[in-house]
Amino acid sequence: MAFTTFGTNDPQTVKIWSKMAYREALKGTLLFRKLLGKDGDKRAVIYRHKDLEKSAGDTIKFDILMQAKGAGVTGDERQKDNEEAMVYHQDSVVIDQLRNAHAFKRMSQQRTIHNMRTDAQMNLSDWHANKLETYWLRAQCGDTSLTHGQAATTPDAAHMSICGGQASEAEITSSDYITLDELDYAKEKALMADPPLRPVRIEGAEYFVVILHTYSVTDLKLNLGIGTYKWMDIQQYANVRGLKNPIFTGALGVYNGMILFESPRIYSPIANVYRNLLLGSQAAAYAVGSAYDSADVGTYGKLEMSWHEDVDDYGNEKGISVGSIFGIKKVVFDSADYGTMTISSYSKAKR
What we know:
The chain has helices spanning 11-28, 32-35, 51-54, 106-110, 116-141, 180-192, 214-222, 231-237, 294-300, and strands spanning 46-49, 59-65, 88-94, 96-105, 160-162, 200-202, 205-213, 253-255, 258-263, 273-279, 284-289, 306-312, 317-330, 332-333, 336-337, 340-346. It is an alpha+beta fold. The protein has one domain (1-65, 89-351). Strands 5, 6, 7, 8, 9, 10 and 16 form a 7-stranded mixed β-sheet that branches. Strands 1, 4, 11, 12 and 13 form a 5-stranded mixed β-sheet that branches. Helix 1 packs across helix 5. Residues 1-8, 10-17 and 294-302 have low confidence and may be disordered.
């Protein structure tokens, strides 16, 4: 008869390994976990919607109340019949399942000193971390080939800053590198947008978050573009006033109210052009559903990641599968990006 020789799918084992896999997956993300807000934190770069963690469904719709812009009334002017209507815009995030698995046979375990169950958990956690961070940045940059949950959307013109003052990404030339001046221009455009990007508040001060492709970081260090400021200016203001918040850990530095990070996952829409990012509050929406359906949640609980061990061929073939149900998207209200400014620049490998 078939029997399990390493672990089982009993509820306690599932809970332990599922939580371990999810924890390791979040730890494995370089930037996502830094910028993911805690419950209800609307000033975080990535806002976590928790509705689907508690109830059924695959879509969360969320609103924003636009700031009032009316002139108001003065003196004894009549207020009646001159009220300003409240304007709401809506967006939604859709969740979908993503899974992967490892399978091996009894003799594979016999031939190695490794604990293949533990190795599978770590490897699949790393895989999920890479997917989560990649999906987020592809959505944030506007890579429309991403269709997990819902299709990503291209940046709108009002939320694109193109280096060299070019009219489109197709017109970018080999001299249109990223510079600190270009970051200043992007920040200016972000503050003047309608509605303006709101910075993240950290330790009593306000910052935007900038994520640059690895090639663009090298361009800044080598000062390849014609700019007023140089790499030393970033280092000069890095960790000013002894900033302790974990978000600064691993940052390239701080410049003009912008915390700079590096990622090789920044999207390239055309050859040698990269959509670097300037992000503010609620630039992205993230939602997680229960890893188990209503039939199983009573047994396993509401876990963020599923863990399933499979045994076949009378115990000789074994497999481990992990998965999660989540959605991640760039926030868009009224067909305009909210909290995101892309900075398109020329760059390529230097050697």
